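Interim report to the steering committee. The following record documents the input for Ribokinase (301 residues).
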Amino acid sequence: MSVFVCGALHYDVIVNAPHLPRLDETVAGEAVKYAMGGKGGNQAVAAAQMGARTTFAGRIGDDASGVALLESLNRIGVDSSQVQREPGPSGMSVAIVEPGGGYGAVIVSAANLGIDPNRISIPDDAKIILLQNEIPEEINYIVAQSARNGGAEVVLNAAPARPIGASLLALIDVLVVNRVEAAGMLETDEEKLDPISAAQSLSKLGPKTVIITLGGDGLALYAAGTAILQHGHPVQVVSTHGAGDAFLGALAAARDAGKSLALAACFGQAAAALHVSTDIDKRKAITRQCVEALIAQPPIR
């Protein structure tokens, strides 16, 4: 069994600042860090970090950033044999993190837009397929169709928010969105969103299961006609940057290990809680055992 991830790779520049700049404002930052990013790359690393044998398919440029991205995947043990290379720049992003842990970011897709689906081969033993909205929808569709033909479970993280075709949604087993993305897909105001009702409504678009992540408030899960609200964990937030990817990677690893959707979502929540409460430089030390220890603690009530 294994996890297969197809998606974007970004070379992240992460800046700490007192607040996000307003139009025409220059803000003095306090620190800068560089890290591998892109939702696809992040989720692949998170799955591997939680013990899943993981393969990643994507595309990088022939620049120094591409070399660094490839090294990051290899270092954690992700199979990078399906990472394509092209002349030109790799994808990158700039994230500005505020003192409370919130952030704003800009991505430049570059090489990620040129992924060749004809060069992608899903391993025969792949049980869980992870997709996101940072690459063209036609690539997601081709991979999802191939995964469905092979009997794998297809998970789509519909982020960043964008319209999604009915043909792709019909191939999705598990749809994962946050409040903003859920509201966008349902064409409603985020403030008026009821997570349980929203999850039920999104399931009518095609996915068998819908998860709406709610940050520190937990998540709403709708599956097999049943909706539940799972509470989060009380942690001190350092930065929420990459929290959703930590959740998805851990969820995939747990599903690959045979856990039910509810238990896998619980595992993902705990992994995300540790992620947001740990300094960026120390996140690589978060293990499956750390996550299981947090799960054993009582949740927020």
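The radius of gyration is 18 Å. The committee is asked to note this result when reviewing the revised timeline.
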